[in-house]
Amino acid sequence: MAKTQSNFTCTECGWATLKWAGRCGECQAWGTVVEAGQSTGSLRAVKPVRVSEARIARSIIDIESDSVAHWPSGINEFDRVLGGGIVPGATILLSGEPGVGKSTLLLEVASRAAAGGAKVLYVTAEESVNQVRLRAQRTNALQPSLFLAAETDLATILGQIDQVKPHLLIVDSVQTVSSSLSDGLAGGPSQVREVAATLIRVSKDRNLPILLVGHVTKDGTIAGPRLLEHLVDVVLQFEGDRQTSLRFVRSHKNRFGSTDEVGCFEMTGDGIAEVADPSGLFLSRGKVAVSGTCVTIAVEGRRALPVEVQALIVKSSAPQPRRVVNGVDASRVAMLLAVLERRAGLALSGYDVYVSTVGGIRVTEPGADLAIALAIASAYKDRPFAGSLAAVGEISLAGEVRQASSSKQRSAEAARLGFSTVVDASAGHLGEAVRLAFATASAAVERVAIPEF
Prior knowledge:
This protein is of the alpha/beta class and 453 residues long.
């Protein structure tokens, strides 16, 4: 018989150690190392099993490729992220911070699917059916083929599936469902593994698509064992600031499509609405040109979005000037301030600098460097740029303006929105880019050409 020794394992990645540790040595997660009994050695030799003729390995070119049919959910922005719609038999995990609108989005998906003739079972393990009904009434999501059940027991949920025989199952959320066959409390690693594995097996056996809601931890990662993300077919992240109405759905994993798409939504008093063209959400509505503003063309997934960057420069009375940012990376702004002072001759060390984006969007890509720098330069000189100017480019420590990715897509979006002057890597240096930008304030300049790749 094999010996059993007491050791400690990580519930996230399975890393094993003989001594307890507060932090996993493999995945660096805190508080995930627990004591467990692990068998060492082999109980008996593994013998080969004769494989039947139907299951014998075949050449890959002899295997027929069946096209995966996507089932449209009725929400185009949601289908965009999924790669065209929901695939029968797929398990989709939607995660997001509390209060961001996960349940509202999935209730809208359930309503659209039910309106299209599908039978939908919505299992809520966090609310009562009356609470979900009130929200559905407020968002106009009442459909006769949408069934609600408030259950936290896995066996009861399976019984509901047998009774209703739905075409789509929604479970809100997977961390609040437990099984009597597994140890631990609901939300624990063993319970989450058991519940997820059982639901995924039901999904594959019955060709039933399942949407699971997942909680997140303080650092934004999905709560529970990392195995949960490996088991499901699609992992979606629902993002947004609760202080603003804008929401984004991003795909971190998709076995049936690309992970580059981004879906845009807006929270309203009547629920959640998709935003097919978000080009005007991140631009100010002022009719008079104001100094300290510059527009960049950011890329979210495969979508080009115009984003206005605003800057404010105030003479500082403190020994340490303030650097306050919102929607952009603070360390990148600090670097750009140093480059502007050293390479463009702007004495910014004695000023408080405030930088923000319009509309609550967060832009962290290097392609927004030039727009941030030009907005700061405009605020410093108190000279506004022309409304038809946009800036795209990455700035190095040497002051060089480098070409941003997806340049053709950005230039096409800028032309569509009426930005006739685009300052980019063809300017060569930050000082030249500042000069070209200020030239638009007094006279019309020719559009700065974008190199073809």
